[in-house]
Amino acid sequence: MALVSATGPVDAEATRRRLPGNAATHVALGIVAVYVLLAVVSPLVLGDYISVHPATRLKPPSATFWFGTDQLGRGIFERTLVGTGNSLLVGACVALLATLIGGGIGLVAGYFRTGEWVIMRLMDGLMAVPSVLLAIALASLLGAGLTTVIIAIAVPEIPRMVRLVRSVVLALRQQPYVLAAISIGTRPAKILFRHILPNAVGALTVQATYVCASAIITESILSFLGIGSTPDSPSWGSIMAYGRPYFQVSPWMILFPGVFLSVLVLTINILGDGLRDMLDPRLRRGATL
Amino acid sequence: MAETIPILEGRDLVQHYKVAGNRTVQAVDGVSLTLHEGETLALVGESGCGKSTLSRLMMCLESPTSGQVLLEGKELTALRPAALREHRQRLQMVFQDPYASLDPRMSAVEIVREPLDNYGIGARQDRNEMALSLIRRVALSPDYANRYPHELSGGQRQRLGIARALALRPRVLIADEPVSALDVSIQAQVINLLADIQAEQRLAILFVSHDIGIVAHLSERVAVMYLGRIVESGPTAAVLDNPRHPYAQALLDAVPVHHPRLRRRRTLVAGDLPSPVNPPSGCRFHPRCPLAVERCRSEVPALRSLSGGRQIACHLVSDSNN
Protein backbone atom coordinates (compact mmCIF):
# COMPACT_ATOMS: atom_id res chain seq x y z
CA MET A 1 0.00 0.00 0.00
CA ALA A 2 2.85 2.33 0.81
CA LEU A 3 4.25 1.66 -2.62
CA VAL A 4 1.23 2.00 -4.73
CA SER A 5 0.27 5.26 -3.19
CA ALA A 6 3.77 6.63 -3.50
CA THR A 7 4.24 5.86 -7.16
CA GLY A 8 0.80 5.94 -8.68
CA PRO A 9 -0.95 2.85 -9.97
CA VAL A 10 1.85 0.35 -10.35
CA ASP A 11 0.63 -3.08 -11.19
CA ALA A 12 3.16 -5.00 -9.14
CA GLU A 13 2.34 -8.31 -10.77
CA ALA A 14 2.72 -7.01 -14.32
CA THR A 15 5.91 -5.18 -13.43
CA ARG A 16 7.34 -8.36 -11.99
CA ARG A 17 6.48 -10.44 -15.04
CA ARG A 18 8.25 -7.99 -17.31
CA LEU A 19 11.35 -8.19 -15.18
CA PRO A 20 12.85 -11.62 -14.75
CA GLY A 21 15.91 -10.51 -12.75
CA ASN A 22 16.55 -8.24 -9.78
CA ALA A 23 15.90 -10.60 -6.89
CA ALA A 24 16.49 -7.91 -4.23
CA THR A 25 13.51 -5.91 -5.48
CA HIS A 26 11.29 -8.97 -5.43
CA VAL A 27 12.33 -9.84 -1.90
CA ALA A 28 11.69 -6.23 -0.89
CA LEU A 29 8.28 -6.29 -2.53
CA GLY A 30 7.51 -9.52 -0.65
CA ILE A 31 8.58 -8.08 2.69
CA VAL A 32 6.49 -4.95 2.20
CA ALA A 33 3.54 -7.15 1.26
CA VAL A 34 3.99 -9.05 4.53
CA TYR A 35 4.05 -5.77 6.46
CA VAL A 36 0.88 -4.60 4.73
CA LEU A 37 -0.79 -7.93 5.49
CA LEU A 38 0.25 -7.66 9.16
CA ALA A 39 -1.07 -4.12 9.33
CA VAL A 40 -4.45 -5.10 7.95
CA VAL A 41 -4.92 -8.46 9.67
CA SER A 42 -3.37 -8.10 13.12
CA PRO A 43 -5.87 -5.64 14.65
CA LEU A 44 -8.62 -8.03 13.57
CA VAL A 45 -7.22 -11.38 14.71
CA LEU A 46 -4.92 -10.57 17.61
CA GLY A 47 -6.25 -10.53 21.14
CA ASP A 48 -6.31 -7.67 23.57
CA TYR A 49 -3.33 -5.33 23.31
CA ILE A 50 -4.69 -2.45 25.39
CA SER A 51 -5.78 -3.63 28.84
CA VAL A 52 -3.29 -3.83 31.68
CA HIS A 53 -2.22 -7.12 33.31
CA PRO A 54 0.03 -6.35 36.32
CA ALA A 55 0.56 -10.06 37.04
CA THR A 56 2.48 -10.65 33.81
CA ARG A 57 4.50 -7.45 33.61
CA LEU A 58 8.00 -7.42 32.06
CA LYS A 59 7.95 -11.09 31.08
CA PRO A 60 10.69 -12.22 28.68
CA PRO A 61 9.74 -13.82 25.36
CA SER A 62 8.11 -17.22 25.83
CA ALA A 63 5.57 -19.52 24.20
CA THR A 64 2.74 -17.45 25.71
CA PHE A 65 4.26 -14.01 25.13
CA TRP A 66 6.27 -14.36 21.90
CA PHE A 67 7.98 -10.98 22.19
CA GLY A 68 7.64 -10.70 26.01
CA THR A 69 5.48 -8.14 27.83
CA ASP A 70 5.85 -4.50 28.81
CA GLN A 71 5.75 -2.85 32.22
CA LEU A 72 1.94 -3.00 32.21
CA GLY A 73 1.79 -6.67 31.23
CA ARG A 74 0.71 -6.07 27.64
CA GLY A 75 2.09 -8.37 24.92
CA ILE A 76 4.88 -6.76 22.87
CA PHE A 77 4.05 -9.12 19.99
CA GLU A 78 0.50 -7.84 19.73
CA ARG A 79 1.47 -4.22 20.22
CA THR A 80 4.32 -4.35 17.67
CA LEU A 81 2.19 -6.01 15.02
CA VAL A 82 -0.69 -3.64 15.52
CA GLY A 83 1.76 -0.72 15.43
CA THR A 84 2.71 -1.70 11.87
CA GLY A 85 -0.47 -0.12 10.58
CA ASN A 86 0.33 3.19 12.21
CA SER A 87 3.80 3.35 10.66
CA LEU A 88 2.70 2.27 7.20
CA LEU A 89 -0.20 4.68 7.18
CA VAL A 90 1.98 7.63 8.15
CA GLY A 91 4.67 6.63 5.65
CA ALA A 92 2.20 6.20 2.82
CA CYS A 93 0.23 9.35 3.52
CA VAL A 94 3.30 11.53 3.88
CA ALA A 95 4.84 10.10 0.70
CA LEU A 96 1.57 10.62 -1.15
CA LEU A 97 1.12 14.19 0.12
CA ALA A 98 4.71 15.17 -0.53
CA THR A 99 4.66 13.62 -4.00
CA LEU A 100 1.38 15.13 -5.09
CA ILE A 101 1.86 18.60 -3.62
CA GLY A 102 5.65 18.83 -3.87
CA GLY A 103 5.76 17.10 -7.26
CA GLY A 104 3.01 19.33 -8.61
CA ILE A 105 4.66 22.53 -7.44
CA GLY A 106 8.04 21.31 -8.69
CA LEU A 107 6.69 20.48 -12.14
CA VAL A 108 5.05 23.87 -12.55
CA ALA A 109 7.98 25.83 -11.09
CA GLY A 110 10.49 23.93 -13.24
CA TYR A 111 8.58 23.94 -16.50
CA PHE A 112 6.65 27.19 -16.65
CA ARG A 113 9.05 29.05 -14.38
CA THR A 114 6.32 31.48 -13.41
CA GLY A 115 6.73 32.72 -9.87
CA GLU A 116 9.65 30.34 -9.57
CA TRP A 117 11.71 32.64 -7.38
CA VAL A 118 8.87 33.25 -4.92
CA ILE A 119 8.02 29.54 -4.78
CA MET A 120 11.59 28.50 -4.15
CA ARG A 121 12.15 31.08 -1.38
CA LEU A 122 8.90 29.93 0.21
CA MET A 123 10.15 26.36 0.04
CA ASP A 124 13.47 27.36 1.60
CA GLY A 125 11.50 28.83 4.48
CA LEU A 126 9.35 25.72 4.92
CA MET A 127 12.43 23.54 4.79
CA ALA A 128 13.86 25.34 7.79
CA VAL A 129 10.96 24.17 9.95
CA PRO A 130 11.95 21.05 11.93
CA SER A 131 9.19 18.45 11.81
CA VAL A 132 9.48 17.66 15.52
CA LEU A 133 8.91 21.28 16.56
CA LEU A 134 6.12 21.63 14.01
CA ALA A 135 4.49 18.50 15.43
CA ILE A 136 4.66 19.86 18.96
CA ALA A 137 3.15 23.16 17.82
CA LEU A 138 0.44 21.44 15.77
CA ALA A 139 -0.32 18.99 18.56
CA SER A 140 -0.98 21.84 20.96
CA LEU A 141 -3.11 23.57 18.30
CA LEU A 142 -5.05 20.65 16.86
CA GLY A 143 -4.52 18.02 19.51
CA ALA A 144 -2.32 14.95 19.13
CA GLY A 145 -3.32 12.37 16.57
CA LEU A 146 -2.51 10.76 13.28
CA THR A 147 -3.51 13.78 11.15
CA THR A 148 -1.28 16.08 13.16
CA VAL A 149 1.62 13.67 12.77
CA ILE A 150 1.11 13.34 9.01
CA ILE A 151 0.86 17.08 8.44
CA ALA A 152 3.85 17.80 10.65
CA ILE A 153 6.04 15.31 8.79
CA ALA A 154 4.76 16.15 5.31
CA VAL A 155 5.25 19.92 5.49
CA PRO A 156 9.06 19.89 5.72
CA GLU A 157 9.23 17.06 3.15
CA ILE A 158 7.32 18.99 0.50
CA PRO A 159 10.10 21.52 -0.20
CA ARG A 160 12.62 18.71 -0.63
CA MET A 161 10.36 17.13 -3.20
CA VAL A 162 9.80 20.50 -4.91
CA ARG A 163 13.53 21.10 -5.19
CA LEU A 164 14.24 17.67 -6.59
CA VAL A 165 11.41 17.68 -9.10
CA ARG A 166 12.18 21.23 -10.19
CA SER A 167 15.82 20.39 -10.84
CA VAL A 168 14.86 17.25 -12.76
CA VAL A 169 12.33 19.21 -14.82
CA LEU A 170 14.85 21.99 -15.50
CA ALA A 171 17.17 19.36 -16.94
CA LEU A 172 14.45 17.55 -18.88
CA ARG A 173 12.99 20.66 -20.51
CA GLN A 174 16.33 21.19 -22.26
CA GLN A 175 16.26 17.70 -23.73
CA PRO A 176 16.15 17.58 -27.53
CA TYR A 177 13.02 15.44 -27.38
CA VAL A 178 11.23 18.27 -25.60
CA LEU A 179 12.38 20.70 -28.32
CA ALA A 180 11.21 18.12 -30.85
CA ALA A 181 7.82 17.97 -29.13
CA ILE A 182 7.53 21.76 -29.32
CA SER A 183 8.40 21.70 -33.00
CA ILE A 184 5.74 19.09 -33.79
CA GLY A 185 3.20 21.32 -32.10
CA THR A 186 2.71 19.55 -28.77
CA ARG A 187 0.96 21.89 -26.31
CA PRO A 188 2.78 22.78 -23.08
CA ALA A 189 0.40 20.84 -20.82
CA LYS A 190 0.80 17.73 -22.94
CA ILE A 191 4.58 18.13 -23.00
CA LEU A 192 4.49 18.31 -19.22
CA PHE A 193 2.38 15.18 -18.77
CA ARG A 194 3.48 13.14 -21.78
CA HIS A 195 7.22 13.89 -21.94
CA ILE A 196 8.43 15.52 -18.74
CA LEU A 197 6.43 13.70 -16.07
CA PRO A 198 7.03 10.14 -17.35
CA ASN A 199 10.74 10.84 -17.55
CA ALA A 200 10.74 12.31 -14.05
CA VAL A 201 8.86 9.32 -12.58
CA GLY A 202 12.09 7.49 -11.77
CA ALA A 203 13.40 10.35 -9.65
CA LEU A 204 9.94 10.90 -8.13
CA THR A 205 9.65 7.23 -7.20
CA VAL A 206 13.01 7.10 -5.52
CA GLN A 207 12.37 10.32 -3.64
CA ALA A 208 8.87 9.17 -2.64
CA THR A 209 10.22 5.96 -1.15
CA TYR A 210 12.89 7.88 0.76
CA VAL A 211 10.22 10.26 2.01
CA CYS A 212 8.14 7.26 3.03
CA ALA A 213 11.04 5.66 4.87
CA SER A 214 12.08 8.83 6.63
CA ALA A 215 8.45 9.61 7.53
CA ILE A 216 8.21 6.22 9.22
CA ILE A 217 11.31 7.02 11.25
CA THR A 218 10.07 10.51 12.14
CA GLU A 219 6.72 9.07 13.18
CA SER A 220 8.55 6.74 15.57
CA ILE A 221 10.52 9.67 16.94
CA LEU A 222 7.34 11.66 17.51
CA SER A 223 5.65 8.70 19.21
CA PHE A 224 8.77 8.14 21.26
CA LEU A 225 8.50 11.74 22.44
CA GLY A 226 4.81 11.23 23.14
CA ILE A 227 3.54 13.63 20.46
CA GLY A 228 2.29 10.90 18.16
CA SER A 229 -0.47 8.42 18.51
CA THR A 230 -2.76 7.92 21.49
CA PRO A 231 -1.91 5.10 23.96
CA ASP A 232 -4.67 2.78 22.72
CA SER A 233 -3.23 2.71 19.18
CA PRO A 234 0.29 1.44 19.77
CA SER A 235 3.16 2.75 17.71
CA TRP A 236 6.69 1.40 17.50
CA GLY A 237 8.04 4.66 18.84
CA SER A 238 5.79 4.67 21.91
CA ILE A 239 6.49 0.99 22.62
CA MET A 240 10.19 1.80 22.60
CA ALA A 241 9.60 4.87 24.77
CA TYR A 242 7.88 2.70 27.38
CA GLY A 243 10.77 0.25 27.16
CA ARG A 244 13.49 2.83 27.59
CA PRO A 245 13.60 2.87 31.44
CA TYR A 246 13.59 -0.96 31.49
CA PHE A 247 16.10 -1.46 28.69
CA GLN A 248 18.75 -3.18 30.87
CA VAL A 249 16.37 -5.70 32.40
CA SER A 250 13.89 -6.23 29.55
CA PRO A 251 15.50 -5.23 26.25
CA TRP A 252 12.77 -6.97 24.21
CA MET A 253 10.52 -3.95 24.62
CA ILE A 254 12.93 -2.00 22.42
CA LEU A 255 14.40 -4.86 20.39
CA PHE A 256 11.26 -6.09 18.61
CA PRO A 257 9.71 -2.80 17.50
CA GLY A 258 13.22 -1.60 16.67
CA VAL A 259 13.84 -4.59 14.38
CA PHE A 260 10.45 -4.16 12.73
CA LEU A 261 11.22 -0.49 12.12
CA SER A 262 14.73 -1.07 10.76
CA VAL A 263 13.71 -3.87 8.41
CA LEU A 264 10.80 -1.86 7.03
CA VAL A 265 12.88 1.26 6.40
CA LEU A 266 15.67 -0.71 4.76
CA THR A 267 13.21 -2.62 2.59
CA ILE A 268 11.47 0.51 1.38
CA ASN A 269 14.77 2.05 0.40
CA ILE A 270 15.79 -1.04 -1.58
CA LEU A 271 12.40 -1.08 -3.21
CA GLY A 272 12.78 2.54 -4.34
CA ASP A 273 15.92 1.76 -6.30
CA GLY A 274 14.37 -1.36 -7.79
CA LEU A 275 11.19 0.41 -8.83
CA ARG A 276 13.11 3.14 -10.61
CA ASP A 277 14.81 0.46 -12.70
CA MET A 278 11.53 -1.30 -13.39
CA LEU A 279 9.82 1.90 -14.49
CA ASP A 280 12.57 2.85 -16.93
CA PRO A 281 12.19 1.19 -20.33
CA ARG A 282 15.93 1.57 -20.94
CA LEU A 283 16.71 -0.48 -17.84
CA ARG A 284 13.80 -2.88 -18.27
CA ARG A 285 15.30 -5.74 -20.17
CA GLY A 286 13.33 -8.02 -22.45
CA ALA A 287 10.50 -5.51 -22.39
CA THR A 288 8.59 -5.66 -25.65
CA LEU A 289 10.86 -7.56 -27.99
CA MET B 1 14.27 32.90 -58.13
CA ALA B 2 15.26 35.89 -56.08
CA GLU B 3 12.06 37.74 -57.00
CA THR B 4 9.66 35.20 -55.53
CA ILE B 5 8.78 35.33 -51.85
CA PRO B 6 11.17 33.02 -50.01
CA ILE B 7 9.45 30.17 -48.21
CA LEU B 8 11.63 30.72 -45.16
CA GLU B 9 13.59 33.83 -44.43
CA GLY B 10 15.78 34.98 -41.59
CA ARG B 11 16.42 38.72 -41.39
CA ASP B 12 19.34 40.15 -39.45
CA LEU B 13 19.11 37.44 -36.84
CA VAL B 14 21.10 38.12 -33.72
CA GLN B 15 21.34 35.82 -30.74
CA HIS B 16 23.39 36.93 -27.78
CA TYR B 17 23.38 34.85 -24.61
CA LYS B 18 24.15 36.38 -21.27
CA VAL B 19 26.68 34.27 -19.41
CA ALA B 20 28.32 34.43 -16.01
CA GLY B 21 30.37 37.51 -15.25
CA ASN B 22 28.04 39.82 -17.17
CA ARG B 23 29.54 38.71 -20.46
CA THR B 24 27.73 37.98 -23.69
CA VAL B 25 28.14 35.08 -26.07
CA GLN B 26 27.52 36.39 -29.58
CA ALA B 27 26.39 33.05 -30.98
CA VAL B 28 24.67 34.51 -34.04
CA ASP B 29 25.44 38.08 -35.04
CA GLY B 30 23.43 39.51 -37.90
CA VAL B 31 22.59 36.61 -40.18
CA SER B 32 20.13 36.80 -43.06
CA LEU B 33 19.11 33.68 -44.94
CA THR B 34 16.55 32.91 -47.59
CA LEU B 35 15.24 29.54 -48.56
CA HIS B 36 13.03 29.07 -51.63
CA GLU B 37 10.48 26.41 -52.36
CA GLY B 38 11.93 23.00 -53.11
CA GLU B 39 15.48 24.25 -52.62
CA THR B 40 18.25 22.87 -50.43
CA LEU B 41 20.42 25.43 -48.73
CA ALA B 42 23.43 24.09 -46.92
CA LEU B 43 24.84 25.93 -43.95
CA VAL B 44 28.43 24.94 -43.33
CA GLY B 45 31.01 25.97 -40.78
CA GLU B 46 33.17 24.53 -38.08
CA SER B 47 31.93 23.48 -34.64
CA GLY B 48 30.95 26.40 -32.48
CA CYS B 49 30.31 28.85 -35.32
CA GLY B 50 26.61 29.19 -34.42
CA LYS B 51 25.04 26.82 -36.96
CA SER B 52 22.90 25.02 -34.42
CA THR B 53 21.83 28.25 -32.73
CA LEU B 54 20.85 29.63 -36.12
CA SER B 55 18.81 26.54 -36.93
CA ARG B 56 17.00 26.74 -33.59
CA LEU B 57 16.28 30.40 -34.30
CA MET B 58 14.94 29.62 -37.76
CA MET B 59 12.84 26.88 -36.16
CA CYS B 60 11.52 29.38 -33.59
CA LEU B 61 12.64 27.14 -30.76
CA GLU B 62 14.22 30.15 -29.14
CA SER B 63 13.54 33.85 -29.52
CA PRO B 64 16.30 35.89 -31.13
CA THR B 65 17.84 38.89 -29.41
CA SER B 66 16.84 40.77 -32.54
CA GLY B 67 15.84 40.01 -36.10
CA GLN B 68 12.93 38.21 -37.68
CA VAL B 69 12.00 34.82 -39.05
CA LEU B 70 9.41 34.77 -41.82
CA LEU B 71 7.61 31.70 -43.11
CA GLU B 72 5.97 32.31 -46.48
CA GLY B 73 6.12 36.04 -45.76
CA LYS B 74 4.50 35.76 -42.32
CA GLU B 75 6.63 36.94 -39.45
CA LEU B 76 6.85 34.12 -36.92
CA THR B 77 9.05 35.90 -34.40
CA ALA B 78 6.22 38.34 -33.60
CA LEU B 79 3.73 35.58 -32.77
CA ARG B 80 2.67 34.36 -29.36
CA PRO B 81 3.36 30.67 -28.70
CA ALA B 82 -0.24 29.60 -29.34
CA ALA B 83 -0.35 31.41 -32.68
CA LEU B 84 3.11 30.18 -33.61
CA ARG B 85 1.89 26.63 -33.10
CA GLU B 86 -0.52 27.05 -36.03
CA HIS B 87 2.44 27.70 -38.32
CA ARG B 88 4.69 24.94 -37.06
CA GLN B 89 3.02 22.34 -39.23
CA ARG B 90 4.76 23.77 -42.30
CA LEU B 91 8.15 24.08 -40.63
CA GLN B 92 9.70 20.93 -39.21
CA MET B 93 13.07 19.86 -37.95
CA VAL B 94 15.34 16.84 -37.88
CA PHE B 95 17.68 16.96 -34.92
CA GLN B 96 21.36 16.29 -34.61
CA ASP B 97 21.25 13.60 -31.93
CA PRO B 98 18.78 10.95 -33.07
CA TYR B 99 18.67 9.31 -29.65
CA ALA B 100 18.25 12.36 -27.44
CA SER B 101 15.58 13.79 -29.72
CA LEU B 102 13.28 10.78 -29.21
CA ASP B 103 11.39 10.41 -25.94
CA PRO B 104 12.83 7.22 -24.37
CA ARG B 105 9.42 6.32 -22.98
CA MET B 106 7.55 6.29 -26.25
CA SER B 107 7.44 3.51 -28.82
CA ALA B 108 8.25 4.19 -32.47
CA VAL B 109 4.63 4.33 -33.54
CA GLU B 110 3.71 6.64 -30.64
CA ILE B 111 6.52 9.00 -31.60
CA VAL B 112 5.35 9.27 -35.20
CA ARG B 113 1.72 9.46 -34.16
CA GLU B 114 2.22 12.40 -31.80
CA PRO B 115 2.27 15.19 -34.44
CA LEU B 116 -0.85 13.68 -36.04
CA ASP B 117 -2.63 13.78 -32.68
CA ASN B 118 -1.44 17.33 -32.03
CA TYR B 119 -3.09 18.72 -35.13
CA GLY B 120 -5.99 16.28 -35.31
CA ILE B 121 -4.87 14.95 -38.68
CA GLY B 122 -7.02 12.05 -39.89
CA ALA B 123 -9.57 10.17 -37.85
CA ARG B 124 -8.38 9.03 -34.46
CA GLN B 125 -8.62 5.34 -35.35
CA ASP B 126 -6.69 5.83 -38.61
CA ARG B 127 -3.70 7.55 -37.07
CA ASN B 128 -1.85 4.39 -36.12
CA GLU B 129 -2.13 3.25 -39.73
CA MET B 130 -0.93 6.67 -40.92
CA ALA B 131 2.00 6.49 -38.54
CA LEU B 132 2.85 3.01 -39.80
CA SER B 133 2.84 4.18 -43.40
CA LEU B 134 5.21 7.02 -42.45
CA ILE B 135 7.44 4.45 -40.78
CA ARG B 136 7.40 2.43 -43.99
CA ARG B 137 8.08 5.60 -45.99
CA VAL B 138 11.41 6.09 -44.21
CA ALA B 139 12.31 2.48 -45.02
CA LEU B 140 11.79 1.18 -41.51
CA SER B 141 10.03 -2.12 -41.08
CA PRO B 142 6.62 -1.86 -39.35
CA ASP B 143 7.94 -4.68 -37.15
CA TYR B 144 9.82 -1.95 -35.30
CA ALA B 145 6.62 -0.01 -34.57
CA ASN B 146 6.40 -1.12 -30.96
CA ARG B 147 10.06 -0.79 -30.18
CA TYR B 148 11.51 1.90 -27.97
CA PRO B 149 14.29 4.20 -29.20
CA HIS B 150 16.95 2.36 -27.19
CA GLU B 151 16.08 -0.80 -29.08
CA LEU B 152 16.82 0.80 -32.46
CA SER B 153 20.12 1.49 -34.22
CA GLY B 154 21.35 5.03 -34.84
CA GLY B 155 20.22 5.04 -38.46
CA GLN B 156 16.81 3.64 -37.53
CA ARG B 157 16.41 6.30 -34.87
CA GLN B 158 17.22 9.08 -37.29
CA ARG B 159 14.79 7.68 -39.86
CA LEU B 160 12.16 7.67 -37.12
CA GLY B 161 13.02 11.33 -36.45
CA ILE B 162 12.54 12.05 -40.16
CA ALA B 163 9.21 10.19 -40.18
CA ARG B 164 8.05 12.34 -37.27
CA ALA B 165 9.12 15.53 -39.05
CA LEU B 166 7.33 14.45 -42.23
CA ALA B 167 4.10 13.50 -40.48
CA LEU B 168 2.75 17.04 -40.76
CA ARG B 169 3.68 17.30 -44.49
CA PRO B 170 5.86 20.37 -43.93
CA ARG B 171 6.97 22.76 -46.66
CA VAL B 172 10.31 23.41 -44.98
CA LEU B 173 12.61 21.02 -43.18
CA ILE B 174 15.48 22.20 -41.04
CA ALA B 175 18.04 19.44 -40.70
CA ASP B 176 20.61 20.24 -38.03
CA GLU B 177 23.57 17.95 -38.74
CA PRO B 178 21.17 15.04 -39.23
CA VAL B 179 23.88 12.52 -40.00
CA SER B 180 26.86 13.71 -37.99
CA ALA B 181 26.04 11.26 -35.18
CA LEU B 182 25.77 8.31 -37.58
CA ASP B 183 28.29 5.85 -38.98
CA VAL B 184 29.58 6.76 -42.42
CA SER B 185 27.94 3.66 -43.89
CA ILE B 186 24.56 4.78 -42.56
CA GLN B 187 24.97 8.45 -43.49
CA ALA B 188 24.43 7.77 -47.20
CA GLN B 189 21.16 5.94 -46.54
CA VAL B 190 19.77 8.82 -44.52
CA ILE B 191 21.00 11.46 -46.99
CA ASN B 192 19.49 9.60 -49.92
CA LEU B 193 16.25 9.23 -48.02
CA LEU B 194 16.14 13.00 -47.47
CA ALA B 195 16.91 13.63 -51.15
CA ASP B 196 14.15 11.22 -52.25
CA ILE B 197 11.61 12.81 -49.96
CA GLN B 198 12.59 16.27 -51.10
CA ALA B 199 12.13 15.37 -54.74
CA GLU B 200 8.78 13.77 -53.97
CA GLN B 201 7.30 16.52 -51.82
CA ARG B 202 9.03 19.67 -53.17
CA LEU B 203 10.36 20.24 -49.70
CA ALA B 204 12.71 23.12 -48.97
CA ILE B 205 15.58 21.99 -46.77
CA LEU B 206 17.96 24.01 -44.65
CA PHE B 207 20.75 21.51 -44.26
CA VAL B 208 23.23 22.28 -41.52
CA SER B 209 26.49 20.40 -41.81
CA HIS B 210 30.20 20.53 -41.40
CA ASP B 211 30.68 17.82 -44.02
CA ILE B 212 31.48 19.45 -47.37
CA GLY B 213 31.12 16.15 -49.22
CA ILE B 214 27.49 15.74 -48.20
CA VAL B 215 26.79 19.40 -48.91
CA ALA B 216 28.16 19.07 -52.45
CA HIS B 217 25.97 16.05 -53.03
CA LEU B 218 22.75 17.43 -51.64
CA SER B 219 22.45 21.19 -51.90
CA GLU B 220 21.91 23.78 -54.60
CA ARG B 221 23.12 26.70 -52.53
CA VAL B 222 25.57 26.91 -49.70
CA ALA B 223 26.23 29.47 -47.00
CA VAL B 224 29.52 29.41 -45.12
CA MET B 225 29.34 30.56 -41.55
CA TYR B 226 32.17 31.77 -39.36
CA LEU B 227 31.80 32.81 -35.73
CA GLY B 228 28.16 33.84 -35.89
CA ARG B 229 28.25 35.49 -39.33
CA ILE B 230 27.85 34.36 -42.90
CA VAL B 231 31.05 35.00 -44.82
CA GLU B 232 30.15 33.61 -48.20
CA SER B 233 27.15 32.18 -49.95
CA GLY B 234 26.14 31.19 -53.45
CA PRO B 235 25.38 28.27 -55.74
CA THR B 236 27.03 25.15 -54.33
CA ALA B 237 29.01 24.27 -57.43
CA ALA B 238 30.41 27.79 -57.83
CA VAL B 239 31.33 28.22 -54.17
CA LEU B 240 32.90 24.80 -53.82
CA ASP B 241 34.85 25.05 -57.10
CA ASN B 242 36.04 28.58 -56.57
CA PRO B 243 35.66 29.78 -53.02
CA ARG B 244 36.38 33.50 -52.74
CA HIS B 245 36.44 34.19 -49.03
CA PRO B 246 39.76 33.22 -47.43
CA TYR B 247 37.92 31.24 -44.76
CA ALA B 248 35.84 29.35 -47.31
CA GLN B 249 39.06 28.60 -49.22
CA ALA B 250 40.72 27.23 -46.10
CA LEU B 251 37.62 25.22 -45.16
CA LEU B 252 37.50 23.61 -48.59
CA ASP B 253 41.22 22.99 -48.70
CA ALA B 254 40.82 20.98 -45.53
CA VAL B 255 38.51 18.51 -47.27
CA PRO B 256 40.35 15.29 -48.07
CA VAL B 257 40.67 14.60 -51.78
CA HIS B 258 40.09 11.07 -53.00
CA HIS B 259 43.17 10.91 -55.24
CA PRO B 260 46.73 11.76 -54.17
CA ARG B 261 47.58 13.44 -57.52
CA LEU B 262 44.64 15.76 -57.06
CA ARG B 263 45.86 16.94 -53.73
CA ARG B 264 45.85 20.70 -53.64
CA ARG B 265 48.23 23.03 -51.97
CA ARG B 266 46.70 23.58 -48.59
CA THR B 267 45.92 26.93 -47.12
CA LEU B 268 46.02 26.07 -43.48
CA VAL B 269 44.26 28.20 -40.94
CA ALA B 270 46.34 28.92 -37.89
CA GLY B 271 44.90 28.76 -34.41
CA ASP B 272 41.49 27.87 -33.05
CA LEU B 273 38.09 29.40 -33.51
CA PRO B 274 38.12 32.52 -31.29
CA SER B 275 35.64 32.72 -28.45
CA PRO B 276 32.25 34.16 -29.34
CA VAL B 277 32.29 35.78 -25.90
CA ASN B 278 34.81 38.36 -27.05
CA PRO B 279 34.96 38.07 -30.82
CA PRO B 280 37.67 39.83 -32.85
CA SER B 281 36.95 43.34 -34.05
CA GLY B 282 36.29 44.10 -37.69
CA CYS B 283 36.25 40.97 -39.79
CA ARG B 284 35.97 38.13 -37.30
CA PHE B 285 38.31 36.02 -39.36
CA HIS B 286 41.18 38.52 -39.42
CA PRO B 287 43.37 36.98 -36.66
CA ARG B 288 43.53 33.73 -38.64
CA CYS B 289 43.39 35.14 -42.14
CA PRO B 290 46.62 34.87 -44.19
CA LEU B 291 45.62 37.92 -46.23
CA ALA B 292 44.42 40.25 -43.49
CA VAL B 293 45.25 43.95 -43.84
CA GLU B 294 44.75 46.87 -41.46
CA ARG B 295 41.23 47.56 -42.69
CA CYS B 296 40.13 44.03 -41.69
CA ARG B 297 40.93 44.76 -38.06
CA SER B 298 38.78 47.84 -37.78
CA GLU B 299 35.94 47.59 -40.27
CA VAL B 300 33.28 44.90 -40.37
CA PRO B 301 32.94 43.69 -43.97
CA ALA B 302 29.34 43.75 -45.20
CA LEU B 303 27.91 40.83 -47.13
CA ARG B 304 28.08 42.11 -50.73
CA SER B 305 26.59 40.59 -53.84
CA LEU B 306 28.87 39.37 -56.58
CA SER B 307 27.83 38.14 -60.01
CA GLY B 308 26.29 34.70 -60.36
CA GLY B 309 24.13 34.97 -57.25
CA ARG B 310 27.11 34.91 -54.94
CA GLN B 311 27.59 36.95 -51.81
CA ILE B 312 30.73 37.56 -49.86
CA ALA B 313 31.80 39.42 -46.75
CA CYS B 314 35.45 40.30 -47.38
CA HIS B 315 37.20 43.62 -48.02
CA LEU B 316 39.75 42.02 -50.29
CA VAL B 317 37.46 40.41 -52.81
CA SER B 318 35.65 42.32 -55.52
CA ASP B 319 33.84 41.17 -58.61
CA SER B 320 36.64 42.49 -60.86
CA ASN B 321 39.41 40.18 -59.69
CA ASN B 322 37.20 37.20 -60.47
Quickly list its features.
heterodimer, A: 289 residues, mainly alpha, MetI-like fold, 0% strand, elongated, disordered N terminus, B: 322 residues, alpha/beta, Rossmann fold, 2 domains, four-stranded antiparallel beta sheet, 12 strands
Q: In summary, what is this structure?
A:
With 289 residues, chain A is an all-alpha fold. Chain A has helices spanning 2-7, 12-18, 23-45, 76-111, 116-127, 131-142, 146-172, 176-183, 188-224, 236-243, 252-279. The two termini of chain A are 31 Å apart.
Compute the number of structural domains of chain B: 2
SSE pattern of chain A: HHHHHHHHHHH
Counting helices, strands and paired strands, the structural category of chain A is mainly alpha
Helix content of chain A: over 70%
Ranges of chain B where pLDDT stays below 50 over 5 or more residues in a row are none
Structural class of chain B: alpha/beta
Q: Number of helical runs of chain B?
A: 10
Mean pLDDT of chain B: 90
Q: How would you describe the oligomerization state of the chains in this entry?
A: heterodimer
SSE inventory with pairings:
The complex is a heterodimer of chains A (289) and B (322).
Chain A (H helix, E strand, L loop, with lengths): L1 H6 L4 H7 L4 H23 L30 H36 L4 H12 L3 H12 L3 H27 L3 H8 L4 H37 L11 H8 L8 H28 L10
Helix pairs in contact in A: 3-4, 3-11, 4-7, 4-9, 4-11, 5-7, 6-7, 7-9, 8-9, 9-10, 9-11, 10-11
Chain B lengths: L7 E12 L3 E13 L4 E5 L6 H8 L7 E6 L2 E2 L5 H8 L2 E4 L13 H11 L8 H11 L16 H13 L5 E5 L7 H18 L2 E6 L2 H7 L2 E6 L2 E7 H6 L4 H8 L40 H5 L5 E2 L5 E2 L10
Parallel strand pairs in B: 3-8, 3-9, 6-7, 7-8
Antiparallel strand pairs in B: 1-2, 1-4, 4-5, 9-10, 10-12, 11-12
